[in-house]
Design a protein that fits this description.
alpha/beta; about 45% helix
């Protein structure tokens, strides 16, 4: 390497280090839903699991079509005294576009709901909130579900559907779901599984499997 090349390489490395330190010193993390996902109304009345899961699967499909993240969508609903539900928040996977491995569909929906309601636990004031997700949660999102304060989680796709296209869902066991149940979180699975699995299969042909 010539002296000029060495100086240029050193300069580039110094600039990268300087920029990294500048980012590291900021101490802030910002993220957001894609613009298209902000248009879902909380006025609609939902009356069935299939209706609510259709929204979660639609979020997963739209996220892939719009190129705004991975094939996972979630929504949190409040169950009212009359048995109907209203939408509180939506979430979709934002890992790749936001460069943040924590932004799974479930965690995004949970954080938005807690921020909107001003609660660190959704059940802390006696509310009845339910998480609908287009695929069974990974190990991180199972933990987030436990601590979020939801009373119920409803899943569409199976862990095997995500694993089939290359995603590593981590150490998730039947005992994980048993623990949720013992902690007061009712678990329902396989609601619109095939619709959700189709989104995953399509993503597997075109999308980035970011955690393998």
């Amino acid at each position: 390497m010539s002296a000029v090349s060495a100086v240029a390489a050193f300069g580039a490395a110094f600039a990268l280090t300087k920029n990294y330190r500048k980012r590291a010193r900021s101490g802030s993390v910002t993220w957001d839903l894609p613009a298209w996902a902000k248009n879902y109304s909380s006025e609609k009345v939902y009356t069935s699991d299939e209706e609510m899961m259709s929204l979660a699967v639609e979020l997963s499909r739209r996220n892939v079509e719009e190129g705004t993240g991975g094939p996972f969508g979630s929504a949190i609903f409040e169950r009212l005294e009359n048995g109907t539900c209203r939408l509180v928040s939506v979430g979709c996977n934002r890992v790749v576009p936001m460069k943040n491995s924590g932004l799974h569909g479930e965690t995004v929906a949970i954080q938005i709901a807690q921020d909107k309601l001003g609660l660190y636990s959704l059940r802390s004031e006696g509310g009845n909130y339910e998480l609908f997700t287009s695929c069974e949660p990974c190990c991180m999102c199972l933990g987030a579900t436990l601590w979020s304060g939801v009373n119920r989680i409803v899943c569409a796709g199976k862990k095997e559907d995500a694993s089939a296209i290359g995603f590593d869902e981590g150490p998730v066991f039947e005992e994980s779901y048993e623990h949720l149940e013992k902690s007061g979180v009712k678990v329902v699975r396989n609601v619109l599984r095939e619709e959700a699995a189709e989104v995953l299969r399509n993503y597997g042909k075109i999308g980035e499997i970011y955690n393998r």
